[in-house]
Amino acid sequence: MLLVAVVAVVALQGKGGNLSGYLGRVTNNSPINQSLPVVPNTPVTSTTASTNVNLRLTPPPTPTATIDSATKLPKIAPPDKTAPTVSIDSPTDGQTIHGNFTVIAYANDNIGVTKVEFRSGLGYVLLPAGTLTKPDPQTNAYKYTLNTSGVPDGLNLLSVWAYDAAGNVGKKTISIKLDNTGPDLSISIPDMHSLADTCAAIESKAGSSFDGNCSGLLGNGIMYEKLVPLSFNVNADASDASGISKVTFSIDNDIDNAKWGATVDPAPFTFTQQIAHRNLDEDINHNNMDSQVAYDVPLGNHFLYVQAWDKAGNMTNKTVKFSVDNIHLVYNPDSNQPPKSIVYDAVIPFIRNIQITN
Prior knowledge:
By secondary structure, this protein is mostly beta strands. The protein has three domains: 2-55, no CATH class; 85-178, Immunoglobulins (Immunoglobulin-like); 184-357, Immunoglobulin-like, CATH 2.60.40. 8% of the residues lie in helices and 41% in strands. The protein has three helices and 19 strands. It has a five-stranded mixed β-sheet, with no helix packed on it. It has a five-stranded antiparallel β-sheet with strand order 14-13-17-18-19, with no helix packed on it. The model is unreliable at 1-39, 46-50, 218-223, 282-286 and 338-343 (pLDDT under 50).
């Protein structure tokens, strides 16, 4: 038996076995003392001279489980029953939204959140990208762009569900109001006439009754002053269920870049733009009659853009096309006098070709 043990040890060492570390003393006359304890990295010695054999065994790994001091058994961690907490930062409960709106939510868990779902009022996961597994690295918020176009206006529900690895679910639900319909908008322009009615309109505006050919207007300087300056007056009637936030008026450009324009809030939504004024440096009887009038808005075609905004951010617009023109009036009470002795002459500015479109 001794011979077999020695040969086995030598064979293991020859094959690279890791048996170094246990030093045994083996004799030809007595067996190894089996009653000695085996302690890692500690020599084991018999009572007689022997052949040294280097036997090292790897010690067993240290257990990682926590041991219960009373039962001496490994402790089992209790199941995770804590659901994540969820909050919705935007929109707020009851807020009116429209178009593409970014929902911002936060989710926390005692161990970790595995995913967050954005759901409609019926509980369906919103698509596309209605499920997020990671928050925004800068803000730690979960953000989802909600497209409300095509969804009927009115009250709805928005829910955010957060999950952890144990399957616990935390939920937060708020009510929202969808409004994708722009305001009702109508335009009215008082005292506007076409070119064919210019003389009659001018007489009416001057407060006089003449023959309709404008020849009698220049017989009274007060009447002329009623005709110049010329202003463009526009009234807008706007209404919406969520309320009107503002109405903008701008000529020939958007409100941010228009030379002539205004933002009106609150009602009444009225815009007045002076088109032309009397040039006080020129006499009414001056031979250069065109210099009698100075134009704030130049002669020619123009566009007035009217935009009404509701409190949800929807906009309705209308466009008014118009032309600035003038008429040259000459009145000579005595036709026998030469042209240079004309008593009254004038250039009367007016607006024509007015068209309102959506």
